[in-house]
Amino acid sequence: MPRNILLLQGGGALGAYQAGAYEALAEHAYDPDWVIGVSIGAINASLIAGNPPERRLERLREFWRRITTPPPSFIPTPMPLPAAAEQKLSALSAVLFGQSGFFRPRPPFDFIAASPLSFYDTTHLRQTLEELVDFDRINSGTTRLAVGAVQVRTGNMIYFDSAQHRLTPEHIMASGALPPGFPPVEIDGEAYWDGGLVSNTPLEYMMRSEPREDSLVFQVDLFPSSGIMPTTLDEVAEREKDIRYSSRTRYNTDAEKRRQDLRRRVSAFLERLPPELRGDPITQHLEEFSCPAQIDVVHLIYRPGRPQGANKDVQFDMATAERRWQYGRGDATRALTAAPWREPHPHDLGMRTFDITKIKS
Q1: C-alpha–C-alpha distance, residues 130 and 108, integer Å
Q2: How many CB atoms lie within 10 A of CB 283?
Q3: From 18-27, 63-72, 95-104, 192-201, the region with the lowest mean pLDDT
Q4: For residue range 111-133, what is the model confidence (pLDDT) as tens digits?
Q5: What is the maximum span of the chain, computed from C-alpha positions, in angstroms?
Q6: DSSP 198-211
Q7: What's CA 62's distance to the chain center, in Å?
Q8: Cα(14)–Cα(302) distance, rounded to whole angstroms?
Q9: Who's near 255: CB < 8 A, 6+ residues apart?
Q10: Helices (DSSP H) in 151-227: which residue ranges?
């Protein structure tokens, strides 16, 4: 049986889509053996890996309930607002007041008395993680967890993996420490920022980890690579953000597919060699580049039907989070119903990719 892997991209408030996708996966008895996340994906991943299967949805629900609790209204609106105005007000609310259980603005005095490295304080996120995530469970190895962060000093992408590290709330917070909004997080004397600064999708790390095994991978992305031509400056900024955060995802997926196809073909070639060539130095060198694993990557990509605004990733209001949750649940349900990965895997292919969210019912 192939191992089950769940990859969760960064994207702030858009992460509610991932929680909805996981709900559908859980309903279809998809139990991940390994969860890898970046930024908000790391937080969702910790909630999944850090709880038993029967409590994961409850914990995800509680986290998203906490961080989308609206602050007191600062602009009275006696009549319904257009969708675009609601989007902007929701984002503005998060910027001005922060989000309960997640982050809060630093008081003005902080910038006079000291020189902080961020606009917001994330102490509340640590408290939320301690309450909702069982880190002893994560470190027991029941479900493997890896989260990506960037080392500030070197600019290198680092993955903290429960298979090699003892993970704490700081590792999760480091993965989501997007500057200059959030402060760097220190781990073992080094400061870390959000992993999305280097690579927003963890497929590359999964494929670098050995031994590679037959795997069914659900990759839940929050920024679509394709989209409509923008007609306003706000849509221009939104489209630019989508392209920026999805471009490396497309590049990495295409590159990893080429590599794994080649590894499998090299493996098949070596199996055909006569015994007298097995000890040849060239054969031994080729064995380093061989891998027979067959990997299926299922893309679930958040593609809303209308523009969401340039600040969609800080639009934390509860109604929007619920819509995104249901959108993710619907996309994952469609993918699981279609299940094209159940078709026989061509012998010469090391990786297949499926984009079910392009198919709308």
Answers
A1: 28
A2: 14
A3: 63-72
A4: 888 889 999 999 999 999 999 99
A5: 85
A6: T-S-THHHHHHSSS
A7: 19
A8: 8
A9: none
A10: 169-175, 203-208
Tokens of 88: 């902007």
Task: Give CA–CA dist 220/202, Å, rounded.
Answer: 10
Distance CA 47, CA 60 (A): 6
Nearest to 82, CA basis, from 73, 71, 72, 90: 90
Residue count of the chain: 361
Residue with tokens 């590599």: 259
Please report how the helices 16-27 and 40-49 are oriented relative to each other, as an axis angle in degrees rounded to 10: 30
Cβ within 8 Å of residue 90, ≥6 positions away: 315, 316, 317, 320
Residue at 60: amino acid letter: L
Residue linked to tokens 């795997």:
215
Task: Write the single-letter amino acid at 255.
Answer: A
| Alpha-carbon separation of residue 12 from 4, 71, 183, 223, 267 (angstroms) | 25, 18, 15, 11, 41
Task: Please enumerate in sequence order all residues whose Cβ is within 8 A of that of 153, keeping only pairs 6 or more positions apart, or say none.
Answer: 190, 191
Pure H helices in 35-117: 40-49, 56-67, 83-97, 108-113
Residue showing tokens 């922060």: 98
| pLDDT, tens only, 45-101 | 999 999 999 999 999 999 999 999 775 555 555 556 666 677 778 888 888 888 999
Residues 153, 89: Cα–Cα separation, whole Å = 36
User: Encoding tokens for residue 149?
Assistant: 């962060």
Three-class DSSP category at 225: coil
**Residue 66 near residue 101 (C-beta atoms within 8 A):** yes
